[in-house]
Specification:
With 157 residues, the protein is an all-alpha fold. It is 76% helix and 0% strand. It contains 6 helices and no strands.
Length: 157
């Protein structure tokens, strides 16, 4: 799953970046922007949760080696994969709807080589308070992943 997320992240970012630098194609249509934003957020969220599950797997393998095959059965691994995908979709999909509800006016130039949620939300002509709050919630989930990874590493040591 980690390799698939990296394979999904590469074309979502690098191809547009190469188009900007090599061919000076700095413009992107709104639909392509939303698609790239969604792909980048999906891949980074998947990467975060997969690394978290890998840290838990490492903890179980090192701290409970004799019970490893009893704890992580094929059924548990299948459930983990479903939970990873569902959690990612639940937290990332609202970003698209939060952007689509905003009205945009004036010149819309984003000084980035990739598409992100807050980069586009800042260009809106309306309040982005809901977007900012949801972004903080999504980041807190990422910090929970980081905390679980750190906790498992500490427990292993």
């Amino acid at each position: 799953m980690l390799a698939c997320t990296e394979l999904g992240l590469f074309p979502a970012t690098i191809l547009k970046m190469l188009a900007i630098f090599w061919f000076n194609l700095g413009e992107i249509v709104f639909g392509a922007y939303i698609t790239q934003m969604y792909t980048i957020h999906i891949c980074t969220a998947l990467e975060s949760v997969v690394l978290t599950v890998m840290a838990i797997d490492g903890y179980i393998a090192i701290c409970n080696p004799l019970r490893y095959s009893m704890i992580l059965t094929n059924k548990v691994i299948a459930i983990l994969i479903i939970v990873i995908i569902v959690r990612t979709l639940v937290f990332v999909t609202p970003f698209v709807f939060l952007i689509l509800r905003l009205p945009f006016c004036g010149v819309q130039i984003i000084p980035h080589t990739y598409c992100e949620h807050m980069g586009l939300a800042k260009l809106a002509c309306a309040s982005i308070r809901v977007n900012v709050i949801y972004e903080l919630i999504a980041f807190s989930v990422g910090y929970i992943d980081l905390s679980v990874i750190g906790f498992s590493c500490v427990q292993i040591l």
